[in-house]
Amino acid sequence: MTGTALQIPETLRKKLARLGLRSQEDLLVHLPLRYEDETRLTALRDAPWDEAVQIETTVISAEVQFRPRRQLVVRTETGDGELWLRFFSFYPNQKAVLAPGARIRCFGEIRGGFFGAEMVHPRFTVVKDDLPLPNTLTPVYPTTAGVGQATLRKLVARALQEASLDETLAAEVLQQHGLPGFAEAVRILHAPPPQVRLADLQTRRHPAWRRIKFDEILAQQLSLRRAYLSRRQRGAPVLQAAGQLAARLLSGLSFGLTSAQRRVLAEIDADLAQPFPMQRLLQGDVGSGKTIVAALAACRAIEAGWQAAFMAPTEILAEQHYLKLGAWLEPLGIHVAWLSGSLKAKVKREQRAAMAGAAQLVVGTHALIQDGVDFSRLGLVIVDEQHRFGVQQRLALRQKGGNPHQLMMSATPIPRTLAMSYYADLDVSVLDELPPGRTPIRTRLVSESRRNEVTAYVEAQVTAGRQAYWVCPLIEESEALQLQTALETFERLVAELPHLRIGLVHGRLKSDEKQAAMAAFVAGELDVLVATTVIEVGVDVPNASLMVIEHAERFGLAQLHQLRGRVGRGAHASACILLYAQPLSETARARLKVIFENSDGFEIARQDLQLRGPGEFIGVRQSGVPFLRYADLEADLDLVEIARPIAETMLAESPMQVERHLQRWLGGREEWLKS
Fold first, then answer.
1. Torsions phi, psi for 86 (to 5 deg)
2. Residue 111: phi, psi to the nearest 5?
């Protein structure tokens, strides 16, 4: 089944394409934003002000005036008073149409003007030959420049007549869940009869909206689960090993695994032993021990005679992983290579040669997926902070090795609703247990006006033998302004605390300078580290017991939680101070309240989803997963629960209906799910 192409001029076709409208089927599910009621007339004396109404009136005069600005001013008589119309943007023929004596219907909001009741830029129709009132509510569609509402209404009306409205759901599904048929639902939503309650349409509580939202969620489930099943048709190396390498690694560690880590490793081991590629998302709160799980998975691949690759989104994080993994694995005789964009040409050539030869584990940034970078025998790909990578980037790394197994990790806990919908194409493992020894972190909200008290507290912590971070805000509008903020904070602390050893890390430093500052802090050679958000993830300093976050109101909840998790890693009582500037917006106030009241990353993630929607969690994955236009994950969770088993049944029993449903909702745009 393919969409029926629109028979329209090329100029209009290009404009509609900006709205994603390429076929009549696309128009069917291009649903109104809101509705206007032109099915009835309102007398001027009964018309409420500042609400859209329709009034029939007769033109008395129409004049172009130039004070205070050029405008067409039309005086009309309704039979129970005068109504003035003003048009600040108009065509000459409009003045001709609005000639004295013309009978017109105006639709707009009434407000008080200089001469009395007036409408500004109303929509109007000339009444000829007892023009009947519409018998349906008037839809208002999402649009783009150069595409008027009248054009969209005509195209949708034609699509309702000519496009296929066939049913894709089984009759028992409709009956069991009280859903109207598809044809009935779209006809109601595009042309609601006047007896339909406008409030039910506007709030999307009408049964027709429920059907549309269910269809959309079902399309998402079908596309993601079909991608999941198609991956199982691809061959992948079977990574079977006795586990001796992993056992040697564990025996040399100063800590043991939690029960959650052992459970997740068993899930990963089972996947790696299969002849199709693992596609697993490992999520866990800050400090839950994802890195050692990744290292043990790499050991299995290496012992089976294959290479493992570990990719991180930033150089500082990738380098942290390289140092930690090297310290764990090189004593076991494992050759660990390192590749990043900042390496000198000669070193890059050496590392690439190692990757194509003897290197068993390769750690790096996006440099791993560049042209000219080859692996000799890639069996496992590990992607840290996976939501920061685009679909094409993950696909490029997979193509470096044919069909390696993939383990994606995220320290941003994903709410259950998102995992069920946007991550339905992945197997999900959760580290829901923190290793022993992690100390609770006290969170304090402090106004910027009390900065001196915070500085004194930093000094007290250092005097007691501890270390502190002082994080400066991410200012998206200006990288230069962000750098300036970090430099000013650094200079102020140096001046106020001259006897302390204070370091500075920011994005403009060269890689070796950043690494040197970080290494000095890790080694205890610095008391305070002033930094931008480069230290958000991956830094592990057990002696650091204080995190100060300046302008905390500018950070997202996930970032605040990540930064707070940089402390509390040792045996000492730890604190996170959120410095904020007044006045706070309502959104900022809500975010700070959530982070102050909660330490559980999954609860923070759930509330963040309510505050900001799914975009922050799926990150650049959104370019590869169908967004929900009409459904709301929190409000429509019951529909997600219903759609999941129905999707599985349809994939197994009704492939033709699956094709029709996906064509209607995605138009064949599933290619990005193959990463």
1. -125, 135
2. -140, 170
What is the arithmetic mean of pLDDT over 636-664?
Answer: 92
pTM for this predicted structure: 0.73
Q: Classify strands 103-112 and 71-77 as parallel, antiparallel or unpaired.
A: unpaired
CB 530 within 8 A of CB 488: no
Beta strands in 472-599 (DSSP E): 502-505, 528-531, 544-549, 574-580
Query: Parallel, antiparallel, or unpaired: how do β-strands 307-311 and 361-364 relate?
Result: parallel
Using DSSP, state whether 64 is helix, strand or coil: strand
Instruction: Specify which residues 126 forms β-bridges with.
Output: 104
Tell me the two tokens of residue 34.
Answer: 């809101």
Distance, in Å, from the CA atom of 574 to the CA atom of 545, rounded to the nearest integer, reads: 4
For the chain, helix (H) and strand (E) counts, in that order, are 24, 21
Residue 644 near residue 420, CB atoms below 8 Å: yes
Give residue 637's identity as a one-letter amino acid code.
Answer: L
Confidence at residue 622, expressed as pLDDT on a 0 to 100 scale: 45
> Residue 25 carries which side chain, given as an amino acid letter?
E
Q: How far apart are CA 480 and CA 646, in angstroms?
A: 52
- Which candidate, 317, 240, 225, places its Cα nearest to that of 275? 240
Least confident stretch, 81-85, 96-100, 175-179, 223-227: 223-227
Quickly count: other Cβ atoms within 10 Å of residue 12's Cβ: 15
CA-based nearest residue to 71, from 119, 107, 106: 119
For the segment 360-365, the average pLDDT, to the nearest whole number, is 90
How far, rounded to the nearest angstrom, does the alpha carbon of residue 668 sit from its chain's CA centroid? 22
- Identify the H or E element spanning 177: helix 171-177
Query: What size, in residues, is the chain?
Result: 675
501-555 pLDDT, tens digit per residue, is 999 887 777 777 877 888 888 889 999 999 876 665 456 788 999 999 988 888 8
What six digits make up the tokens of 129?
Answer: 């030959």
Q: By the 8 A CB rule, do 501 and 525 touch?
A: yes
As a three-state string, the secondary structure of 388-442 is HCCHHHHHHHHHCCCCCEEEEEECCCCCHHHHHHCCCCCEEEEECCCCCCCCCEE
Q: How many CB atoms lie within 10 A of CB 53?
A: 23
Name the residue among 372, 370, 374, 371 with its Cα closest to residue 356: 374
Would you say residue 12 has pLDDT above 50? yes
Peptide bond into 583 cis (omega under 30): yes
The distance in angstroms from the start CA to the end CA of the chain is 25
111 contacts: CB under 8 Å, gap ≥ 6: 49, 50, 117, 118, 119, 120
CA 105 – CA 134 distance, rounded (Å): 12
pLDDT of residue 388: 58
Give the largest CA-CA distance in the chain.
96
Task: Locate 464 and state its tokens.
Answer: 């007691």
Render pLDDT for 61-92 as a digit per residue (tens, 0 to 9).
999 998 788 899 999 999 999 999 999 888 88
Give the integer Cα–Cα distance in Å for 8 and 2. Answer: 18
Integer Cα distance of 543 and 197 in angstroms: 63
Averaged pLDDT score across all residues of the chain: 85
pLDDT in the model for residue 105: 95
125: helix, strand or coil: strand
pLDDT confidence of residue 674: 47
